[in-house]
Design brief:
The chain is α+β, with helices and mostly antiparallel strands and 300 residues long. The protein has eight helices and 15 strands. The protein is elongated and about 80 Å long.
Length: 300
């Protein structure tokens, strides 16, 4: 009789706040508490699926900036988590018993919470190990990445860079941020600040007002948009560099070789030939630019 009274009190008086908090901390725990365990597991599987989407998009998404893809995955994950918590709160007190005696429920809750903790810690631990925050040490990638900008770098085994990607190049102990302008096998000719790939010059146009405003640039005369395949990215070429001309370099890129260049084409050593195994990561975007006060800026 006593057990029945406890069970009845538990079934009709479940805390909505407790269910909400349980699912907010341990996805689906509030549903287990409210007697809707299967729905809690569905919410958990949805979060796992969203976490699995990100590595897939690293390989196959080239149309949408990587920074915004990352932000979209985080936003979708938060929507699922909050929806799960709200559903648990609404469901609490409306469902029947979960089929365990009152004295057995606590071990069930603890076991489920530990399982969720282990699964999500493993998955998100792997994802967070792929992402790091770096500071741009020089002005070599202006006008998109300024000196002292904080950039997000993504590393994933087997992820080969594509033309137009901004990457981290390992040169000994030094780490450089550069843009991929050609990937072998290709023939590249560099004359002054102009690049031709397989005898096709990369087209340049004066930077538009909307791009200059987005990047918070004042002197637009030395900034251009360079088109490379289907990628369009800003470059900085001062008038003196355009007038100087410079020598001609003919470069053959074998398979698994890349030509990377600085967006700031000032000086002589703004391009270099590297191997795929020298690429230490792909720059997703600028998290924060202290000099311009800009948050979340894509690098393409």
């Amino acid at each position: 009789m006593k057990d029945k009274l406890i069970s009845s009190a538990h079934d009709t008086g479940r805390s909505r706040v407790g269910a909400f908090a349980g699912s907010l901390i341990f996805t689906g725990l509030g549903q287990v508490y409210a007697g809707a365990a299967s729905k809690g597991i569905v919410f958990l599987l949805l979060r796992i699926a969203v976490a699995g989407i990100f590595p897939v998009l690293l390989f196959y998404n080239r149309e949408f900036p990587l920074l915004y893809t990352m932000a979209g995955c985080v936003l979708l994950d938060m929507i699922i988590l909050i929806s799960c918590a709200i559903h648990a709160g609404v469901t609490a007190g409306k469902s029947g018993s979960i089929g365990y005696t009152p004295y057995m429920r606590l071990p069930v809750y603890v076991a489920y919470a530990l399982a969720v903790l282990l699964v999500l810690t493993f998955i998100y631990g792997m994802l967070f190990s792929m992402v790091s925050l770096s500071t741009m040490p020089s002005s070599r990638m202006e006008p998109v990445i300024m000196k002292d900008d904080r950039v997000l770098v993504v590393r994933f085994p087997g992820l080969l860079p594509s033309v137009g990607d901004t990457v981290v190049v390992a040169r000994g102990e030094e780490k450089l941020i550069r843009r991929v302008v050609a990937a072998g096998p290709e023939n590249v000719i560099i004359k002054g600040t102009a690049i031709s790939v397989n005898n096709t010059p990369l087209e340049r146009t004066i930077m538009s007002d909307d791009v200059a405003a987005r990047l918070k640039l004042v002197n637009r005369e030395e900034y251009y948009l360079e088109r490379n395949d289907d990628t369009l990215y800003p470059v900085m070429i001062p008038a003196k560099e355009m007038q100087k001309g410079g020598g001609t370099s003919m470069i053959y890129l074998a398979k698994e070789k890349l030509l990377v260049a600085a967006d700031n084409r000032t000086g002589d050593e703004w391009f270099m030939k590297v191997s795929n195994d020298q690429i230490a990561g792909r720059v997703a975007g600028v998290l924060y630019s202290p000099g311009r006060g800009i948050w979340f800026l894509a690098v393409q």
